[in-house]
């Protein structure tokens, strides 16, 4: 308001009845995890921390797998999410995005590494041959036993033959296997971080031919009116079967 008095001009400032509040943009958030290496089956939380930012603030939580696939796992007004019954699929990169009426900011990625295992091992036998007895091999061929059990950290492996330890490592190879190697083979997988273990056992039978050649003989039969041919070939597993060829009459 302006007023004039005795030739002087006066300027009066009046206060507006309206007040204005400046909206503060959200600062770059940073992610906190209660446990960056949780054990499978446990509970944990994630918090999206902000130094500044005028509310209301919305939060979006993103999960990125090793292959680069990004999904939204949660969103809302809470800066904390709880994860119950953590499993191996929760492993990956996490980030949070905070948004208000002014701007939007994303945190840096943080890696979550779920500890688990080992699962029950899987045993692969090469060459692959299976019977009602289990796996089988031919004597003097090379047989490879490969053991795999999902685990984080990676499993450590120990092989047993008929309950006696014979090898350490995922792949146990028997060069020129012999009949004496028939028996039970067990793979023990160990997670040394959790001090947990699991085991799988298979049965391996080694087939082998009888030693030498068949032994045959001729004997008189039917009161010396015919001949009887005899052949034997002892040994071998399974026992050999002998077949005759030619124009023969069986007595």
> Which descriptor suits the 3D outline?
rod-shaped
Largest sheet: 6 strands, mixed
Structural class: mainly beta
Rg over CA atoms: 40 Å
Number of strands: 21
Order of helices and strands: EEEEEEEEEEEEEEEEEEEEE
Number of distinct helices: 0
**What fraction of residues sit in β-strands?**
over 45%
Proportion of helical residues: under 10%
Q: Distance between termini?
A: 141 Å
Contiguous low-pLDDT stretches (5 residues minimum) are 1-14
Q: Can you give the mean pLDDT?
A: 88
For the largest sheet, list the strands in their spatial order: 12-13-19-18-15-16
Protein name: Ig-like domain-containing protein
InterPro entries: Ig-like_dom, Ig-like_dom_sf, Ig-like_fold, Ig_sub, Ig_sub2, IgSF_CEA-related
Domain Ig-like: 29-107, 121-203
Keywords: Disulfide bond, Glycoprotein, Immunoglobulin domain, Signal
Describe the protein's architecture and organization.
With 251 residues, the chain is mainly beta. 0% of the residues lie in helices and 47% in strands. The protein has no helices and 21 strands. A six-stranded mixed sheet has the order 12-13-19-18-15-16, with no helix packed on it. Strands 5, 6, 8, 9 and 10 form a five-stranded antiparallel sheet that branches. A hairpin with a 4-residue loop joins strand 8 (92-99) and strand 9. The model is unreliable at 1-14 (pLDDT under 50).
């Amino acid at each position: 308001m302006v007023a004039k008095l005795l030739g002087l001009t006066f300027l009066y400032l009046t206060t507006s009845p309206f007040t204005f509040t400046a909206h503060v943009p959200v600062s770059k958030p940073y992610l906190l995890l209660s446990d960056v290496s949780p054990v499978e089956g446990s509970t944990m939380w994630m918090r999206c921390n902000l130094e500044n930012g005028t509310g209301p603030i919305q939060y979006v939580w993103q999960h990125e797998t090793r292959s680069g696939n990004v999904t939204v796992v949660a969103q809302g007004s809470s800066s904390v999410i709880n994860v119950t019954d953590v499993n191996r699929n929760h492993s990956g990169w996490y980030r949070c995005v905070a948004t208000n009426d002014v701007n939007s900011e994303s945190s840096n990625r943080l890696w979550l590494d779920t500890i688990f295992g080992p699962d029950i091992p899987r045993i692969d036998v090469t060459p692959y041959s299976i019977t009602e007895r289990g796996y089988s091999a031919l004597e003097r061929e090379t047989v490879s036993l490969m053991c795999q059990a999902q685990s984080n950290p990676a499993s450590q492996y120990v092989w047993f033959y008929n309950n006696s330890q014979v090898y350490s490592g995922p792949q146990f190879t028997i060069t020129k296997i012999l009949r004496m190697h028939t028996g039970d083979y067990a793979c023990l997988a160990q997670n040394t971080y959790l001090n947990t273990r699991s085991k799988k056992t298979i049965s391996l039978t080694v087939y082998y031919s009888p030693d030498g050649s068949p032994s045959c003989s001729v004997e008189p039969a039917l009161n010396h009116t015919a001949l009887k041919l005899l052949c034997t070939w002892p040994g071998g597993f399974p026992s050999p079967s002998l077949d005759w060829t030619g124009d023969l009459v069986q007595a």
